[in-house]
Amino acid sequence: MAVALTVRAVHVPLKKVLPKSTRNNNLDYRKKKMMPIVSSFPIGKQQNVNNRKLPILLFDIMDTIVRDPFYHDVAPFFGMSFKELMESKHPTAWIEFEEGRVDEMELAEKFFKDKRSFDLEGLKNCMRRGYSYLDGIEELLCNLKENNYEMHAVTNYPVWYRLIEEKLNMSTYLSWTFCSCMIGKRKPNPGFYLEVIRHLKVDPTSCIFIDDRHSASAGVVGPSPPHTHKKKKILVTPFSPLMLGISSESPRTY
User: Fold this and answer.
1) pLDDT score of 133 more than 50
2) Tens digits of per-residue pLDDT, 13-53?
3) Average pLDDT of every residue of the chain
4) Which of 58, 92, 127, 139: CA 20 to 30 A from 145?
5) Other C-beta atoms within 10 Å of 244: how many?
6) If DSSP codes are grouped into helix, strand and coil, which group holds residue 58?
7) Contact predicate 33/40, CB 8 Å
8) Under a CB-based contact definition with an 8 Å cutoff, are residues 127 and 95 in contact?
9) What is the pairing mode between strands 151-155 and 175-179?
10) Which residues of 97-155 form beta strands (DSSP E)?
11) Pfam families, alphabetically (predicted)?
């Protein structure tokens, strides 16, 4: 029996990040400079299960929490335009890397269609330099953490998520629980979402998915609001049971 769900999706503007020097000089900057960001979220109070605070927050990572250097830094590293990079790279090598089906050495061997060699360590350093928190995100995560929300990464990314962790210490705020390289599947494969629910042992409606991309929910939980390029915003949607069987999300292209 088909079940229609109507879900409201809400865009949440992010607050400015205070300079680290300000943080060091003023230990209570959060109390003095910020209103509780968590109040901006469409998070209703739910009954806790076994003292577990609900809802559980599931964060996409790239371009939701962390700047994605692939779109800005990788083509210049190779001395190419982005169009040239997309035309010359192997069509599935990065996807296989994200799913953990090849390691980084195998990625290097097949990254380009013509199998040209390149400086793998140089590419990793390029990526590492490009990782940074998006404006306002670290304060958001800190505020949610202080309010005792359980948070997990839900991301299509290879083992290089460890490079992000080494630089940004994201595990201070959330757990790297659901990476495609660990699960062997990528969003929007329903098997990925089934693994999330199996691991968390909660009803899907007790989770909220947070992403920068409208396609993550378009056609899954209802129509998306109009897109805006003026300020970085994120899309907050309840985790829909329909994600477990039907999804129209277009995977991020690498």
Assistant:
1) yes
2) 444 444 444 444 443 433 333 333 333 344 555 556 567 89
3) 77
4) 127
5) 16
6) strand
7) no
8) no
9) parallel
10) 151-155
11) Hydrolase
Residue 140 pLDDT grade (very low, low, confident, very high; cuts 50, 70, 90): very high
Q: Given a cut of 90, is residue 119 above it in pLDDT?
A: yes
User: Six-digit token pair at 202?
Assistant: 């909660």
Instruction: Check pLDDT > 70 for residue 222.
Output: no
| Contact between residue 88 and residue 111 where contact means Cβ atoms under 8 Å apart | no
Residue at 25: amino acid letter: N
Residue 188 phi, psi (nearest 5): -100, 30
- Is the Cβ–Cβ distance between 143 and 161 less than 8 Å? no
226: nearest Cα among 241, 214, 244, 240 = 214
Measured between alpha carbons, how far is 144 from 63 in angstroms, rounded to an integer?
19
Backbone angles phi, psi at 144, to 5 degrees: -65, -40
Q: Where are the beta strands (DSSP E) in the chain?
A: 10-13, 56-59, 151-155, 175-179, 207-211, 233-238
| Token pair 């277009």 in the structure block, residue | 250
**Residue 120: Cβ within 10 Å count:** 14
Token pair 């050495």 is found at 105
Structure-block tokens of residue 233: 């915003």
What's the CA gap between 157 and 98, in Å, rounded?
5
